[in-house]
Amino acid sequence: MRRLNGALPLAALWAAGMAVRAGAQTPPAPTPTPAPPPAAAPALAETPAAAPGAQPAPSPTEVMLPTPTPIAPTALKIRDVPSIAVERLPAQNPFGRAVDVPAGLPQKLVFTDAAFPAAFFVTIRVDPTGHPSNTRRDHDPIPSLAAESLKSFSRWTFAPARKGGQPVDVWAPYRLELSVEVRSPKIVQMTLTPVDPSTAIPKPFEWPSDSDWLEGRHVTAPADGTVPIDQVDTAPMPQKTPWSADSYKGPFSVKFWVKVDGSGKITRSIPIDVSDPVLLAYFRRSMSAWALRPAQAGGAAVESWNELVLGGTISYSDDIKQIVALRKDIGVSK
To answer: pTM of the prediction?
Structure first.
């Protein structure tokens, strides 16, 4: 009986431990009820002799505790809250369209002479004597005339910049407002290729508007000993401005992606490549007057995207109408 009295507290402790564990793993009920007291352990009787071949019974000094059944943890529920849209890239070119008959160019494209303004942004290093020592073509609409424009800038003379009454060395930015006249080109190459869903999307030709380009320039202060333009009292003022970059005649090339609607009109264009950015405005204006053959699908005229390539020779002239001195550095970007 002394062994029996020692076993009863052990069984009671196990039962209480199991109740505590179950209470910790089971989510709490709204109104918990007190747990019933642990049941008394049954009296242990003398263990009869084991039958031949049977497993030996445990010693009367041992208590065989049942194996606890594990309680599965409560699964965390995830709710998909539609707060952020999930975007997928298209598997095919979104500009492409399968058509039965592609759009086509007329036998002859119509061009006319046209005149329009253009801006040339340039930065000239002017030394304390008023002479240019270096030039940067920051935003040049006619790079075909780069050699002539640089030659012209090297011949300019200035009233030097001053700070505290003394002439100083400075990089001086200017906006040259040009008037450009383009004459009708001679076309020797013209192709219109349909854009289908498998066509690779090319990188467009970046030529932002003058205001957007100027606003986007964020540059560091010069580290060559010159005085920043925004720290001088007076900027260098041009005195003599000879200009030999006033005409061009030679080859040109342009490439656009154009959208042709069901009536054969070009309604949208994306520049891909151009020999001189000044030609972008000219050819966009010319496109608006063309009548093309629209693409067809299912026997009906449909809109379509196409790659337009033009090449040949062209001529244009330009004059400087105004030179504006800027007080913001527009040099090399960060």
So the answer is: 0.70
